[in-house]
Hints:
Blueprint: H1 3-25, H2 32-36, H3 40-47, H4 55-65, H5 69-72
Amino acid sequence: MAKEELLKAYKKAFGENLKKIREEKIKTLSGVDSKTKFDSSNYHKYEMGKGNPTLETIVSIATGLGIHPKELLDFDFDLKNIDIHK
């Protein structure tokens, strides 16, 4: 798997996890603005696997959702036998 494909798949998996957590905590995407103080249109990009959130953004989203940032990164993704440095 090429580096670009791997990162695209990882962002998609991150987005799916983010959406699952958001639905549990806030329910609707429109609630993101008020609960997290984060622009819902940018947030939606992350849920769709289109954005590339920084560590600062991940911490900000987690704080708004009332969770530890590690929960946003706690999803299954197989990185075995993949060298993204090729």
